[in-house]
Amino acid sequence: MNIPAKFAKNASLLALLGVILVALGLPLFEILREAVFKKGELTTAVLAETAAADGLGTILLNTGIIIIVSSLAGTICGVVLAIVATKLRLPWAQAFRAIPLVPLTIAPIVGAIGWVFLLAPRTGWINIFIRQFTGGDEGPFNIFSLPGVIFVTSLYIVPYVFATMASALDRTNAETFEAFMLNGTGRIGAALRVVTGVLRPALLAGLILAILEAAIQFSIPLILNVHVLTTSIYE
């Protein structure tokens, strides 16, 4: 009796998966076709031209550094904030759960422009305030830099990791934490051991989301004038 219903459910899932694959695959196929075919003939001219482009090594290096550093920084911050929001039993913990999600309400291009107003070398408000005590004409911070892109990108990675880990921590049995705490581990230490042990799949899922979010960033490096793969494709 349940076989037709199960078959229908599987068929629906396969159909949905097929639609997603087609929607994602067609644009990628066209990009690859344009890259290796010219006037209907197979060619490597486009690929060779791309490989010989000026500054390609710097672009790849910038992209790799941003992906690695910002995804790790965003993941660490997201995990710590999730532990604070779910396991420390602070009186303001529920209100705190909304704070890490704030970047989701602000477009990355708007956030990047906002940080330009704050940390531009000469006109950034924070820099102007600091120079009242330290002197100088510029700095001390420069948002138009690789560290600046990493910083802003990390802020936009945190919500994805936080949401993943907070949901997983909420579903974790309290006895798991108590077992670690009975052995002398503090509340934060117990939460970290649970995250790296029982909740390792959720942690890996959050890290994968962080890497993908860092890799697809376009508006942040564009506004902050750091060349990466996405901005190079656009140019």
Describe this protein's structure:
The chain is an all-alpha fold and 235 residues long. It has twelve helices and two strands, in the order H-E-E-H-H-H-H-H-H-H-H-H-H-H. Strands 1-2 form a two-stranded antiparallel sheet. A hairpin with a 2-residue loop joins strand 1 and strand 2. Helix 3 crosses helix 9, helix 3 runs antiparallel to helix 10 and helix 8 crosses helix 9. It is flat and about 70 Å long. The relative contact order is 0.13. The model has no long low-confidence stretch (mean pLDDT 84).
The count of DSSP E runs of length 2 or more, i.e. the number of strands, is 2
Strand content: under 5%
Uncertain segments are none
Q: If strands are numbered along the chain, what order do they take across the biggest sheet?
A: 1-2
Helical stretch count? 12
Q: Can you give the helix content as a percent range?
A: over 70%
Oligomer: single chain
Order of helices and strands: HEEHHHHHHHHHHH
Radius of gyration from CA coordinates: 23 Å
A few lines on this structure:
The protein is mostly helical and 235 residues long. It is built from 12 helices and 2 strands.
Please write out the topology:
Elements: H1 3-36, E1 37-38, E2 41-42, H2 45-51, H3 56-87, H4 93-96, H5 108-119, H6 125-134, H7 146-171, H8 174-182, H9 187-196, H10 200-215, H11 219-223, H12 229-234
Helix pairs in contact: 3-7, 3-9, 3-10, 7-10, 8-9
